[in-house]
């Protein structure tokens, strides 16, 4: 069983007790997420899910480092099919952004693409969290900055973001 899967499984079982090893694990996951396109898709997806779960359980530990992996992580999140693992990952994304909004601002276009990758978020709670982070960035950037970011995205991505009230 690959390491990301094992870490993923124990993350919720032990909760915040995983804190002492979180940065070590994240530092192992980031190179996998940043690996070339030809890498093992399953390993990249499992690494993205693991990073999300770690971020959900320990957002204050992971959030200060998000600028080093946010773009690669968001690209990987786009590849994951809609299911509970993707939901867990997005809970982590939202928790991290809530803990360090300015840390994700430079990757906002990637965050938007990841949010638009959902066919439908079935969890109302997660849908509301995604709405909060996107609307938070819209407020943070102001209308001019938000429109500038939206102009960098494909029209279908912008259209999908409308379901989050932005």
From TrEMBL:
Q: Name one GO biological process term.
A: protein import into nucleus
Q: What is its main location?
A: cytoplasm
- Note the SUPFAM superfamilies from the entry: ARM repeat
Q: Does the keyword Cell inner membrane apply?
A: no
Which InterPro entries does the entry link to? ARM-like, ARM-type_fold, Importin_beta
Keywords, sorted A to Z: Cytoplasm, Protein transport, Repeat, Transport
Q: Where, per UniProt, does this protein localize?
A: Cytoplasm
Give any Gene Ontology cellular component.
Answer: cytoplasm
Q: Give yes or no: UniProt keyword Amino-acid biosynthesis.
A: no
Checking PANTHER family in the record gives: IMPORTIN BETA
Q: What is this protein called?
A: Transportin-1
């Amino acid at each position: 069983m690959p390491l990301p899967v094992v870490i993923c499984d124990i993350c919720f079982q032990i909760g915040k007790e995983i804190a002492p090893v979180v940065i070590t694990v994240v530092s192992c996951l980031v190179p996998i997420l940043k690996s070339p396109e030809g890498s093992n898709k399953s390993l990249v997806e499992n690494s993205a899910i693991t990073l999300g779960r770690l971020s959900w359980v320990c957002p204050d530990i992971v959030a200060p480092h998000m600028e080093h992996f946010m773009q690669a992580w968001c690209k990987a999140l786009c590849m994951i099919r809609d299911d509970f693992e993707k939901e867990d990952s997005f809970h982590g994304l939202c928790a991290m952004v809530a803990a360090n909004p300015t840390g994700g601002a430079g990757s906002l276009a990637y965050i938007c693409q990841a949010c638009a990758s959902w066919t439908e978020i079935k969890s109302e709670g997660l849908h509301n969290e995604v709405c909060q982070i996107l609307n938070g960035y819209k407020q943070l950037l102001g209308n001019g900055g938000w429109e500038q970011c939206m102009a960098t995205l494909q029209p279908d991505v912008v259209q999908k973001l409308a379901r989050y009230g932005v």
